[in-house]
Predict the structure.
Amino acid sequence: MRGIILALALSLVGSQKFDIDPGFGSRKSHLYSYEGWVLNGLQEKSLAKVGVRFSSKLEISGLSENTYVLKIRSPQFEEYNGIWPRDPFTRSFKITQVFSSCFTRPFKFEYNSGRIGNIYGPEDCLDICINTVRGILNLIQITIKKSQNAYELQEAGIGGVCHTRYIIQEDRKNGRVSITKTVDQNNCQEKVKKSVGMAYIYPCPVDMMKERLIKGTAAFSYKLKQSDGGTLITEVVSQQVYQISPLSEPTGVALTEARQQLTLLEVRSDRGSAPDISMQNYGGLRYHFPSALPQMPLQLIKTKNPEQRIVETLQHIVLNNQQDFHDDVPYRFLELVQLCRIASADTLESTWRQFSDKPRCRRWLLSAVSVAGTTEALKFIKSRIRNDELNYLQTLLSVTFALHLMKADEHSVPIAADLMTSSRIQKSPMLQQVACLGYSSVVSRYCSQTPACPKEALQPIHDLADEAISRAREDKMKLALKCIGNMGEPASIKRILKFLPISSSSASNIPIHIQIDAIMALRKIAWKDPKTVQGYLIQILADQSLPPEVRMMACAVIFETRPALPLITTIANVAMKESNLQVASFVYSHMKALSKSGLPYIYNISSACNIALKLLAPKLDRLSYRYSKVMHFGAYFDNYKVGAAGDVFVMNSPGTMFPSAIISKLMAYSAGSVADLVEVGVRVEGLTDVIMKQNIPFAEYPTYKKIKEIGKALLGWKELPTETPLISAHLKLFGQELAYVNINKEVLQQAMKTVLEPADRNTVIKRIASQIRNGIAGQWTQPVWLGELRYIVPTCTGLPLEYGLYTTALARAAVNVDGKMTPPLTGDFRPSQLLESTVQIRSDINPSLYVHTVATMGVNTDYFQHAVEIQGKVLKRVPMKFDAKIDTKLKNIKIETNPCHEETEIVVGRHKAFAVSRNIGELGAEKRTSILPGDTSSDIVEEPFKPSERASSEGFTTQGADSRPRKYGYSSQEDLHHDTGRKTHKRDICIKLYHLGCQLCFSRRSQDASFLKNTYLHRLIGEHEAKILLMPVQTDADIDKIQLEIQAGSKAASKIINVASSGSKEEDETSLYKDIQAKLKKILGIENVFKVANKTRRHKKQPSKKGNTMLTELGTDPNAKNSSSSSSASSTVSSSSSSAASPDHKGAVDEDANDQVKQVRNKDASSSSSSSGRSSKSSSRSRRGRSSKSSSSSSSGRSSKSSSSSSSGRSSKSSSSSSSGRSSKSSSKSSSSSGRSSKSSSKSSSSSGRSSKSSSSSSSGRSSKSSSSSSSSSKGSHSSSSRSSSSSSRKSWSHHSHGHHSRYLNGSSSSKSSSHHSHGHHSGHLEGRSSSSTYSKIWEDHEIYKYRFRSAHRQEFPKSKLPADQLSSTYSSSRSSRASSQAASRPKFLGDVKTPVLAVFLHGIRNDKKIGGLQLVVYADIDSIRPRIQIFVSNLTDSSKWKLCADASVLNAHKAAAYLKWGQNCQDYQISTELVTGRFAAHPAAQVKLEWPKVPSSVRSIAEWFYKFVPGAAFMLGFSEQTEKNPSKQARVIVALTSPRTCDVVIKLPDTILYEKAMRLPLSLPVGPRIPASELQPPIWNVFAEAPSAVLENLKACCSVSHNKITTFNEVQFNYTMPANCYHILAQDCSSDLKFLVMMRNAEEAVNLKAINIKLGSHEIDMHPANGQVKLLVNGVESPTTNVSYSSAGASLWIYSEKQGLVLLAPAYGIDRLYFDGYTFRIQVALWMAGKMCGICGKYDAECEQEYRMPNGYLAKDAVSFGHSWILEERPCTGACKLRRSFVKLEKTVQLVGVESKCYSIEPVLRCIKGCSATKTTPVTVGFHCLPSDSATSLTDKQTKFDQKSEDMEDTVDAHVACSCENEDCSA
């Protein structure tokens, strides 16, 4: 038993831990060696790093229990700046002295069970020394849990309370313990950090851990030893790593590594003595930031005598930046800012007194103080403003910069409030606005740092809001709400609600734009209190009585609050029941836009919107541009954790056709943080009234009172309130509103007056002219931006690690402009004087912008700075020194400037990365080392192979750049150099302009570390430089001036001749036109251009290559390829395809010449028919020959055989059966030599033009017929060759032959013959009735991209030959006429028939009087039937034949073409394009074709680079993609209009087809019946020129009445039978102008006939049918019944006969057109009448769901009630209308909520007047208000207003529509 007890005891003891709580004996001293260092740089070796190392001996001795003394002996401070790990640390004596002075005195600390308590040190000890001690003591902070060996906890340390994990390993045998401690610096409850400039960057609600830019961790290793006196720490090693990855690249990181080592040297048994100095408690281990931020880590400044340093720096800046920016000006300015930060208020005052009378020094000083951001600086600015020492602009800039960039704390907020309320600021509205907005931003930054925002900070803005409401000041309301929005504090919600109608009844009188501002003020508050904000906003959105704009803004803000699925579903439910389409469209488009977003921080919203959209009707997606929309765009790159998103809110109001408000904003997302970068909003109200304001006194016309009286007769009618004209705009940066502008009615009217009133306009023009005459001179230099971002965290050594980004932007402008006008302006100035005067301007303007950015990472203290710096700077200069002479009478402009005498840098960009070391003791000796050293080994892939015998004797650095193979090939301007292993990219590109003595050069030098790792960070590391320079170039003779001369009009021709003849006398104006024409042709070298073109055309006989324009047919094999010869009667192609080298880019040929070149894909099955209709046999030679056999049978059994032999001996056979049984043989031979012309002989039985028919049957049994004519032209004979068309193996198609006349294709070509092929087209392309009915059935299984575009003229122009007189009668009668007369009617060179309209010369004026330079000549023929323009650019000298030729022309009613050629005589390179209208899959369509037969390699490389992004962009836009081989040098875009609001788009690229079906258009396009080309009147380009006006015309609303069918302005149709004899208000201007009124009633003659009455201006117009015609009465005077023509004086009014009726035009009144013929009525009103109409035709506000709006503003239940509400009542016995509106009682009693009730209508119902009985009734649906049946209320009770009662139920009652009156009561 004893043994068992002993064993249990031993096991229990063994299971317990030793007491391993570390400690130091109270009677012993422990001597340790300590070393700590910090290194910054990239993680790769052999790159430069920078850092510091601190080493010393530590003596820790016990003072009392748990209290110890720390003495730091022999401190040594070393710096590192070199290549790691090659270079050593170097000792810094100056910093060592600083530390030694700190550490001469001891420190005291509390330590118990491994935990550090308070730390004590000498009074006034430097912060850096105390924090270093904290770093040392942090090493011995251990938390031991006796019951566990592995555990986690939140432990306090130098970096805060962070997540820590321990692992304890015990070696009991030797009495040793090893402890590993790891600290997660990313997971801290109380992290020690400090940030500057990041108040407006918010964390995202996503996983924060993996997306931080800066991540850190620390690991500690402890070795403890058990001894009699306890557990002793013998060694501690710590390692801490912070990494930053700017773009979240896993390998693209920069590291800061901190290490510490503490080693026990000896233990002595002497007790420590208490320090004999007074000690100060410095708190615990937590790092303490200095009260003032350390200096910016860009330079170290001595701060002993700040005033003297400010004076020196100011003088240096001003002295060195007078002419241009000095290279060090950003650093000097930042130094000045730093000095202003540490200067006291007295110092700043003293400095100001020295420089207040020196404008340049004063400007720099004021700028530096403004951006300093200290309390003292703000006091200084406030003092300057109070003393009125600053002008308006200086005050504006100073207040803006000071308030938005200042440090916000409890000291600065009261000063900012005092500045805002100062009298000088309050006097100016603009200054008050800027100050208030700035103050609110200060409060926002201050409150973001405190748990609760003090009420005192918010009070000034709240007082402003209260005052604005009490005084009803709109401007103050807007300002207060903008400020509340900037502050973003939930405490302001109560103030905001006072401006919203949901809680305040008086708020309904507040203007809409103020209510919108109130909602926008809730946006920032929602970040802090989203639930409360959402509660109020959803009430606003759901309240249909509120204005639509207010509700839409509420919707936009709700989605910014990141709502959850339940709220989003509620929003969808609101939209589902919404009657206002503006709101419904806005909500739907917003949800749809968000549902497509891929940004991670709105993923939850996106998925919720996707679900909620299922509730909404897809019809909302089909609404036009008239409805409000939200557009959301964004991109997110998951690899780099960066993204951007933008929103555009487009809000429409009913009163305008165009958006009334547009708000666009851009947000940036990076690694778990989001920032609102910029937001711009514009809102317009009532602008239409201002623009369309006419000086017509509508209110003075007699009809004005009549219309007003009629309105009073309608129940509850009110004219629309007048919109107050207003234009407002706002700008936000980082979520803070910087400024806004309000342009009210008075300002708008003054602006319109200035533009429209001649007197005011003349005054403005005269003022500008006199200002130019007097001259403008001045110089201005101003810092325009200072951006400062800083993020500081402590390292484990106690030294601070700082990340910083500093951006400085400085602008400079030197201006010297003076002018002279001849003749000078007289007193009675008229603008016409400017048209006859000569203006001379001498200008010397030199603007420049210097942007300097530095990113830093490293240790930054007031005594030393060791950091990695990446510097970037961009300097832009645009010198503009010129003399200009403008002669308006002669239409001549001449500008002269000096040539390039010296190198001028236009744009310079430099970028470098350094390791930088500075210390306070050696200010002038900062050390810089390039991060990428000169001897860095390059990529191993690029190292050369070295044989062993060479490798032993020859070092790596002896290898030259040329001795190693290159991975890439570079052009002559670009090279890749290897200097001692370094990788350098160089590129120089120069454009030399010898004639101007200048060259424009782009120079680039690049050297980076991307060979180590291909990340963006490694690309930043190194040196980069890019320049754009203007440099002089060596010329034969010196150039005195560079001259640009522009001559327009008739003088252009003589100017060309004059310049070309080098100053000879101008030609006599009476000289023959032919001489001038010949001279111009010779000067421009036009003959060479067109001669070469013709020669090229003759020689083009090579077979067509892969790049030929070939169209793919349906069902063909994509692998089949064809060769073609332009001169042979090949079975594949006609000669037209290669005869198109004419200078007008195939202007002579058929517009589908390229379409005729078809690719036969199916090698196995093809059918061929000849255009003559007879089977033919032909043989030809060609270069390529493939054997192919094909056969096809048709219904008749006709056969044809065609054989072709090639040089390779292959044969091709084709047979088809034909209906005639006759055969013809045709043979043609051609040689493929490029230098000879081709001949062909052919036999054809139909060479004169007889038509033939051929038919082939498909599996469907349908046949198609086509006829073609063939005739011989003036030169040679032509035959129509057979064309193979394919039949698919899966589906069978019906084809038709499509032969073209040869004359269309040859024109003036020099080739002797051409051959044609028959086109195989599907019958679905035909426009006959037989094919249209089967169209959908035929094509239903095929994608849209398989269809073939058919140009319009193919169907419209007749194919048969017409008589000669018919040919000459019109240009578009037939295609034959156009082609046969082409040589005469379409000259290649417009100069043959026209003089140039514009000549431009750019040349250098040389000493030897020779002319050299460029000339541009423009010929235009705009007024002809087919307008055309030609542009020629050429050298002024004959030595160069380089030219550029451009030609654009409209060829016919359906086609426009253009080309651009350049090179030797315009023959080297070419790009051409054409626009053709036609049909695509039976829909009207347009095709744009772009061809590039040959382009320079540089253009090709840019296009290839761009082409890479096309598929991705197409995918983002929703296009489908199909890989298909298309012509290699051609692109086509086909847009087919499938409906007025949708289109199909097909984009054919060389190897891809992109297509999209039913793409929505923003507005409806006019799609009407096509007009045949023969009916079009010249000029034929009206189809193109009038398209915009046709679209605009289509936007205008039209209301029509035909029989009983009414179509409103909003295109709502309903049937309504008008009661007899009663006028209805059909359409009326309901604005305050009451411009017109149109009434209608049934005519007395017949039931279906109508009569109308129109009141407008001083006219009362009646139109009524009589004897089959429409009779017109104007003011009671009858007009003739036939050929009516009436016009009025004053405001325009025309009435005339048209067809069977009358047309009225009154555009000044808003009636664009009114037509009436007794049966049909149509009225079209102007666009600017939108939202201002009322009557049965509707409001013209696009609100289709609210069309039945009655005069009182409520919606009728049905069309009948709606029509009855607009009946005009008449007096009893005097009028024909016997109907009255009256409230009725429901005949039956109803049970309502269990109570028997009687019900009265809340809407009046038509009843016959007293004494009349109803002869006809109609049922109407009416709402009823019910009362208990015992209630005393009756219909006769005048006190009861039934129309204001609520609706309890609805029922149907009978309304009277016809009355019989026997005893009419005339007293009623």
In short: The chain is about 25% helix and 35% strand. The CA atoms of residues 149 and 877 lie 68 Å apart.
